[in-house]
């Protein structure tokens, strides 16, 4: 078993390492004759995967054990653990390497440990493995010096340790042990991590931790990312130097309070409906704000209220990226965007990922209301996302009686009542198209007022295998007849694009 060979290498590394090249390959092995510090720097170029680094011990006796001194160490039990014994050996192996590293006094620039206890093979044994893995994880946290990534385990956070040099921390698929939730704020505080600059948390479970919220005071923090925080209902951030904030898919988050005067980029999407947002959100970066919106609902709803509040708060933002969900049977639903979202003259760049739930004939109806909110756009990008299994190609477009691929689509254009004015537009990108008549008519309407357009990129979905003649006709109609001839300085690009 590979784990056994790794353990043998660890044992041999505990023996003294020759100071000069006593290798197995004779005098021609000049690399092995280099000093330890140089060899360790070479190992630092290998990426840090312990399973790969340990194999360098097979080069010669000179290399045995040196890999444990590499500046980056990443431990992952792959292939997955098959028994409780495998899990215990993996924990023992990691402990042995880290203990040896601590004895040498060498810092670890990056420490990444992934412990998978949820495999089918370990089902029924997980609870007996949790206590020893928790104890090990607490010790592993203490070994980190600059960068730490800890994944797939339940962890009891230490209450006293200080990480003076740690700058980068990632916690993924972590379950906070019972009663240790309050320690998360402490372990992320300046007193414990005075140099922490990047924090990434994904699938962190709060439910057993004894707390429902997190107060994060981090003076040096620059980048913060939180995704799928299970059980986190309250989040308060006091981060004077934070530049980049991402909060995504936190379905239980009820209130977010932010004090981040230097914030430049905010991504807030797929969180709890109507979550309260408080504080100063300047968002001055060109692509400063990313949100998700739902175009229509069957009845009045507060589904977009938080996002609307963010748009009102981030008045200095110049760029906006929207993930727009357009449901089925749109003609029977209430518009959740038009006349609800305020006019946004500050936005000059807009990119919209259009996600249509069933079929895409109604995409114009969902997008048009959003475009009426912008009057100063210089750049506009529309990306139609493909939804596998939703589009019936034979019903989506057809050939005319002459055999030419025409743009036959007789669906009602409900978007025509919207007043879209993009007089300042200079560049437009439309991607993921299928060449249908409803797409063509809507895009003609979008570009009708863009008299000074300079660049257009049109991308067609590869899933529909469109012929060149169909693409040429689409472009000619859109940019020729539809605009009474494009300006001489306009650059037109067409391309085929796969599913995003």
TrEMBL record:
InterPro entries for the chain: F-box-like_dom_sf, FBL15-like
Region (Disordered): 1-28
SUPFAM superfamilies named among the record's database cross-references: F-box domain
Source domain of life: Eukaryota
Bias type Polar residues, positions: 1-19
Cited PANTHER family: OS08G0272601 PROTEIN (PTHR34709:SF28), OS10G0396666 PROTEIN (PTHR34709)
UniProt protein name: FBD domain-containing protein
Species this protein is from: Urochloa decumbens
């Amino acid at each position: 078993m590979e784990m056994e060979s790794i353990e043998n290498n660890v044992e041999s590394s505990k023996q003294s390492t020759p100071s000069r090249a006593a290798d197995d390959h004779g005098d021609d092995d000049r690399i092995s004759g280099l000093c330890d510090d140089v060899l360790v720097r070479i190992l630092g170029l290998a990426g840090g995967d312990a399973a790969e680094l340990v194999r360098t011990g097979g080069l010669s006796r000179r290399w045995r054990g040196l890999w444990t001194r590499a500046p980056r160490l990443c431990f992952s039990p792959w292939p997955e653990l098959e028994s409780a014994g495998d899990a215990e050996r993996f924990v023992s192996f990691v402990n042995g390497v880290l203990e040896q590293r601590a004895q040498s006094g060498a810092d670890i620039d990056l420490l990444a440990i992934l412990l998978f206890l949820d495999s089918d093979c370990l089902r029924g044994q997980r609870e007996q493995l949790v206590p020893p893995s928790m104890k090990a994880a607490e010790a592993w946290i203490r070994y980190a010096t600059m960068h730490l990534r800890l994944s797939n385990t339940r962890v009891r956070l230490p209450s006293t340790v200080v990480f003076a040099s740690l700058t980068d921390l990632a916690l993924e698929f972590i379950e906070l042990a019972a009663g240790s939730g309050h320690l998360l704020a402490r372990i992320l505080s300046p007193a414990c991590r005075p140099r922490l600059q990047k924090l990434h948390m994904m699938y962190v479970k709060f439910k057993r931790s004894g707390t429902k919220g997190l107060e994060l005071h981090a003076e040096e923090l620059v980048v913060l990312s939180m995704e799928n925080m299970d059980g986190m209902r309250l989040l308060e951030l006091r981060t004077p130097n934070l530049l980049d904030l991402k909060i995504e898919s936190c379905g239980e988050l009820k209130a977010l309070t932010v004090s981040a005067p230097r914030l430049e980029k905010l991504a807030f999407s797929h969180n709890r409906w109507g979550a309260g947002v408080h504080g100063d959100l300047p968002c001055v970066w060109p692509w400063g704000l990313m949100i998700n919106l739902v175009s229509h609902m069957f009845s009045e709803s507060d589904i977009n209220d938080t996002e609307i509040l963010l748009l009102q708060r981030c008045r200095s933002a110049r760029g906006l990226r929207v993930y727009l969900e357009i449901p089925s049977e749109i003609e029977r639903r209430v518009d959740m965007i038009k006349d609800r979202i305020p006019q946004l003259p500050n936005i000059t760049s807009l990119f919209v990922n259009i996600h249509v739930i069933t079929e895409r004939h109604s995409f114009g109806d969902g997008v048009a209301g959003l475009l009426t909110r912008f009057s100063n756009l210089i750049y506009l990008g529309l990306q139609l996302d493909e939804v596998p299994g939703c589009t019936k190609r034979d019903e989506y477009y057809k050939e005319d009686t002459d055999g030419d691929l025409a743009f036959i689509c007789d669906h009602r254009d409900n978007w025509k009542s919207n007043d879209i004015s993009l007089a300042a537009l200079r560049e437009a990108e439309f991607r993921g198209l299928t060449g249908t008549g409803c797409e063509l008519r809507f895009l003609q309407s979008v570009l009708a007022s863009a008299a000074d357009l300079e660049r257009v990129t049109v991308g067609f979905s590869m899933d529909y295998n469109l012929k060149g003649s169909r693409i040429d006709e689409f472009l000619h109609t859109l940019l020729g007849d539809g605009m009474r001839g494009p300006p001489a300085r306009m650059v037109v690009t067409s391309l085929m694009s796969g599913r995003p």
